[in-house]
């Protein structure tokens, strides 16, 4: 190397020295490193931090050796403005040759001491720095992301537990109470594990060039958050039941009362049908829903005792069954009164045809009077034979139609041909 080569090499190595020193001081002051030094670590983090801490120690050792070698080279260069051939030879050896000896700088299984050139020593320091920084950055990222979120979720859990207790959702009495206990235990265990072993919650991302090269694993936290959301919705539903319980109970009583009245009407109508309609199959009418009344009484007792978690599912079931009972009662009434509806329809049809006959001035027709009286006697007598009455109404309709349609004379061309006319 000539003088210019030496000066350029010293300038480059000096710049690298400043860069390494800046990085080392930043690593020394990094919040993640300080946390790692003071934490009671376990698991993956304990193993990796032990290796990283040793790497940082070796890094300072290498840096001190590098600083000493660079200072010695600079001292030689500063002896003369124009260095001698011997000075240049010595500088060349110091700047390019493997003249720096590092005791214990090798990795496991390597020699206890290694020799490096200044360029090789910079590469080794960069390697040690990158590995150590990955551990520090990853641990700091997990500690920055998860514990605070766990604490916020814990505060939400505390509020949900208080609300749950106020509506009777307790462990052993309601599934959501048991879920709250499990979430509480999970969050406590998760926080303890995150603090002790943050790298156990780090997911590496392939191909990333950023320090750490990954992201915090929030899977367990997310599952706990979703479970708490489910419990909170259940507790809010129970709270809504507490607020709406009285109105819902009143509405239930009203629906069941309407069902009872409808069934009573159906039973009365069945007796009337059996008395007024002959040869008709009338379905039986069931009694009032006593089981629903008992459950309604149980619901009122739950409300009185503020057992909202028991009242909530019972009210949901009762509302569905009460509506079904009302629908069944209405169908029963419709089925029972069907013969009366048929009789009413036949009566209306008979009267309508009588009015039509009267409008056409045919009210005194003997056939129509006879058939009308027959049908009317059947429809207004008790018991009424619906089948025979319907046939009587149909006969009256046909007679009416035949009477009201005038007979048209046949055209000349369609008169019957008399004897002998065909030959004429």
Q: List the total number of helices.
A: 12
Q: Poorly predicted ranges (pLDDT <50, ≥5 residues)?
A: 413-424
Strand content: under 5%
Largest sheet: 2 strands, antiparallel
Task: Determine the structural class based on helices, strands and strand pairing.
Answer: mainly alpha
| First-last Cα distance | 153 Å
From the alpha carbons, calculate the radius of gyration and give it in angstroms: 51 Å
Give the fraction of residues assigned to helices. over 70%
The succession of helices and strands, N to C, reads HHHHEEHHEEHEHHHHEH
Report the principal-axis shape. rod-shaped
The mean pLDDT is 81
Give a count of the beta strands, DSSP E runs of length 2 or more: 6
Main sheet: strand order: 1-2
Structural topology:
Elements: H1 3-29, H2 31-38, H3 43-77, H4 85-96, E1 100-103, E2 113-116, H5 118-166, H6 175-196, E3 202-204, E4 214-216, H7 219-276, E5 277-278, H8 290-304, H9 308-336, H10 338-359, H11 366-379, E6 384-385, H12 386-404
Parallel strand pairs: 5-6
Antiparallel strand pairs: 1-2, 3-4
Helix pairs in contact: 1-3, 1-4, 1-5, 2-5, 3-4, 3-5, 5-6, 5-7, 6-7, 7-8, 7-9, 8-9, 10-11, 10-12, 11-12
Give an overview of the whole structure.
- There is one protein chain.
- This protein is mainly alpha-helical and 424 residues long.
- The protein is 73% helix and 4% strand.
- It has 12 helices and 6 strands.
- Strands 1-2 form a two-stranded antiparallel sheet. Strands 3-4 form a two-stranded antiparallel ribbon. A two-stranded parallel ribbon has the order 5-6.
- Helix 7 packs across helix 8.
- The longest helix is centred in the middle third of the chain and has 58 residues, at 219-276.
- The radius of gyration is 51 Å and the shape is rod-shaped.
- The termini are far apart.
- 29% of the residues are buried.
